[in-house]
C-alpha cells in the first residue's frame, strides 16, 4: 500500500514537472540576453539595438571544421535576406587566438559582424555551449526562437528563416 502511494506521488510529480517544462519552453520562449558584442573592427553592437530584426547568433571557431563549412551558408543567407531584416553575428569562442579569427573573417570577406568572446561572457549569457557551432535564432520580438547545437542543415535553416522573416 505504501509502495503504490509513493509510486503514484512520484509519477504525478514527474508528470507535473514535465508538463510545466514543456509549457514554459514551448509557449514562452526565453528572451535573448541583453549583451553587447565587440566586433573585430572594434565596434560595439548591442543585441537590443537589433530588436525588430531576425538575428542569427552563431558561436564558432576557425579551427572547427563544421563551423568553417557553415560560414559560406551563413554568408549566403545574409546576402540574400539582410534587406528583409536578417542580421548575423558570428561570435568566435575563446579558444582560437583573435588574430586567427580576424584573418579568417577578412580573407573570406564575411559580410556580417564577427565578434570575439575572449572571456566566455557571451557564451555564458546564452546559457553555455554544448558544442560548436551553436546557433541561436532570435525573432523580431527579441525572443530566442530556436537553438541549434552542432552544424546547421541548409534546408532547415532556410525553412526557419522564411518562417521568421515572413513572405517576401
In words, what does this structure look like?
The protein has a five-stranded mixed sheet, with helices on one face. Strands 1-2 form a two-stranded antiparallel ribbon. It has helices at 2-27, 65-81, 98-107, 121-125, 154-165, and strands at 36-38, 44-46, 54-60, 86-92, 113-116, 134-138, 144-149. The chain has two domains: 1-29; 31-165, Glutaredoxin, CATH 3.40.30.10. The protein has five helices and seven strands; from the N terminus they run αβββαβαβαββα. It has 168 residues and is α/β, with parallel strands linked by helices. A hairpin with a 5-residue loop joins strand 1 and strand 2. It starts with a helix and ends with a helix. The model is unreliable at 16-28 (pLDDT under 50). The protein is globular and about 65 Å long.
**Main beta-sheet annotation:** 5 strands, mixed
What is the strand content?
15-25%
What is the terminal separation in angstroms?
63 Å
CATH superfamily of the largest domain, by name, is Glutaredoxin
What would the average pLDDT be, to the nearest integer?
88
What's the total helix number? 5
Number of strands: 7
What's the CATH topology label of the largest domain?
A: Glutaredoxin
Helix-and-strand structural type: alpha/beta
- Spatial order of strands in the largest sheet: 5-4-3-6-7
Corresponding CATH architecture of the largest domain: 3-Layer(aba) Sandwich
Rg, rounded, reads: 19 Å
Element order: H for helix, E for strand: HEEEHEHEHEEH
Helix fraction bin: 40-55%
Assign the CATH class of the largest domain. Answer: Alpha Beta
